[in-house]
Amino acid sequence: TGMRICSLFLLVGSATISSVSAFLPPSIHSPAVAHEPPRRSLTVVSSAKVLPIVYTGASVALFKKAIRRSSTKAEMAVLLTTSALSLLNMGPSDSANLASAKKAFKKTEPSSSGRAKQERQAALTWRKAVRLKIIGQIVGLALMIWARTTKGIMLGASVIMYGLVSHFLAGAGRSRHDEEGNWTPLPSNVATSILTMDALFCASAVVATNSPVASTKFAIAAGLYSFGAAVGALEGIPKFLKVLKNST
């Protein structure tokens, strides 16, 4: 059953990652340029709708794994908090970000100078940062679901957190757009603070990956990661509830 769940998750996740590449504009030398935009727009919208399914499936798989196969309480905490993070935060947040990136790209036009150039560059940077985050999270979740050892689970957790770190290293703070695709950058100090915390949780997952499971070092590092995942899950609750309300 676990193998089937993971295989289905990887299949849908791969399709989602592939569809994210639809953000890239077609080459100006392509003879099919005139026919591509409607199709590309539909693909991006579809991928935004698929993401919650992917993350919900991952959440269920991790929850089952935590209940049935956890070897320690620390491992169970990692799986349960990541399950909550996937359901409450990643699904709603990434769907909104993906739609936001699409709107931002559509609103801006290529320009060589002035404010228009800055807005276009911000839209492109936001698009790239969103993609990096989604890919890192999906790969990390897949590794955690597939893993047969605690080390493999923590490796997946490391990849998830690295996806968040790469999101901000790619410029997500200065290029952030709201749900309507408007450029609303984060203050630099806020972006730096978020990046620092994400890097700390990523480092803790890496330390846990390379520590003996029975050691105090593992317990502390895994506990720090679990704390970060739990905080992220709690932060996602308002948007999760909003999505539920809008869907009813």
Descriptive account of the structure:
The protein is mainly alpha-helical. Helices cover 80% and strands 0% of the residues. Helix 1 (2-20) packs antiparallel against helix 2. The chain is globular. The two termini are 31 Å apart. The model is unreliable at 1-12 and 14-45 (pLDDT under 50).
Distance between the termini: 31 Å
Order of helices and strands: HHHHHHHH
| Uncertain segments | 1-12, 14-45
Rg computed from alpha carbons, rounded to a whole number of angstroms:
19 Å
Number of E strands: 0
Shape: globular
> Quick check: average pLDDT?
85
Assign a percent range to the helix content.
Answer: over 70%
List the helices and strands and how they pair.
Elements: H1 2-20, H2 36-69, H3 73-107, H4 114-146, H5 150-169, H6 172-175, H7 188-209, H8 216-247
Helix pairs in contact: 1-2, 1-4, 2-3, 2-4, 3-4, 3-5, 3-8, 4-5, 5-7, 7-8
Short account of what is shown:
Helices cover 80% and strands 0% of the residues. With 248 residues, the chain is mainly α.
